[in-house]
Automatic annotation (TrEMBL):
<feature type="region of interest" description="Disordered">
    <location>
        <begin position="1"/>
        <end position="20"/>
    </location>
</feature>
<dbReference type="GO" id="GO:0046983">
    <property type="term" value="F:protein dimerization activity"/>
</dbReference>
<feature type="domain" description="BHLH">
    <location>
        <begin position="7"/>
        <end position="58"/>
    </location>
</feature>
<feature type="compositionally biased region" description="Polar residues">
    <location>
        <begin position="1"/>
        <end position="12"/>
    </location>
</feature>
<feature type="coiled-coil region">
    <location>
        <begin position="48"/>
        <end position="110"/>
    </location>
</feature>
<dbReference type="InterPro" id="IPR011598">
    <property type="entry name" value="bHLH_dom"/>
</dbReference>
<dbReference type="InterPro" id="IPR044818">
    <property type="entry name" value="ILR3-like"/>
</dbReference>
<dbReference type="InterPro" id="IPR036638">
    <property type="entry name" value="HLH_DNA-bd_sf"/>
</dbReference>
<protein>
    <recommendedName>
        <fullName>BHLH domain-containing protein</fullName>
    </recommendedName>
</protein>
<keyword id="KW-0804">Transcription</keyword>
<dbReference type="Pfam" id="PF00010">
    <property type="entry name" value="HLH"/>
</dbReference>
<comment type="similarity">
    <text>Belongs to the bHLH protein family.</text>
</comment>
<keyword id="KW-0175">Coiled coil</keyword>
<dbReference type="GO" id="GO:0006879">
    <property type="term" value="P:intracellular iron ion homeostasis"/>
</dbReference>
<dbReference type="GO" id="GO:0003700">
    <property type="term" value="F:DNA-binding transcription factor activity"/>
</dbReference>
<keyword id="KW-0805">Transcription regulation</keyword>
Length: 172
């Protein structure tokens, strides 16, 4: 009678045997997953010990990764803040550069109150040539007011200052 009752799935013993077989299969799968490449252990307590060890290692590794992730997130925030600061500084420097360029344009475009001196020809400083050179040894160019070229050559009598105290006595 027992062999007949075990064949029938509705009996309590047959359901228990199916449950144990499933558990044994799951233990074998767990053992194969814990140590791939090795022959799976048949001892259920050894498989459970290995599973507990692996779960502990995975938890510690997960904690390390979480901490690392948090530190990297903080570093990202710091770098973003620094990036924003650099962007602001770049904009400020760019505005300052444009302002300075505008000032330079304004100064170059504005006419100055005192005009630039005209270009002095090199021939003005050259010694006179020919027969006129004998009487004009001390001739020199005289620069007039800025913007008004007043070149003239002074005769030697004007350059001689030995009679100045007689003609223009010092004022006390």
């Amino acid at each position: 009678p027992r062999s007949e009752s075990t064949a029938e799935p509705s009996t309590k013993a047959s359901r228990e045997k199916i449950r144990r077989d499933k558990l044994n299969e799951r233990f074998l799968e767990l053992g194969a997953i814990l140590e791939p490449g090795k022959t799976p252990k048949m001892d259920k307590s050894a498989i459970l010990n290995d599973a507990i060890r692996v779960v502990g290692e995975l938890r510690s590794e997960a904690k390390k990764l979480k901490d690392s992730n948090e530190s990297l997130q903080e570093k990202i925030k710091e770098l973003k803040a620094e990036k924003n600061e650099l962007r602001d500084e770049k904009q400020r420097l760019k505005a300052e550069k444009e302002s300075l360029e505008q000032q330079i344009k304004f100064l170059n475009a504005r006419p100055s109150l005192v005009p630039h001196h005209p270009v002095i020809p090199a021939s003005a400083f050259a010694a006179p040539q020919g027969p006129a050179a004998a009487g004009h040894k001390l001739m020199m160019p005289v620069i007039g007011y800025p913007g008004f070229p007043m070149w003239q050559f002074m005769p030697p009598s004007n350059v001689d200052t030995s009679d100045d105290p007689k003609s223009c006595p010092p004022v006390a």
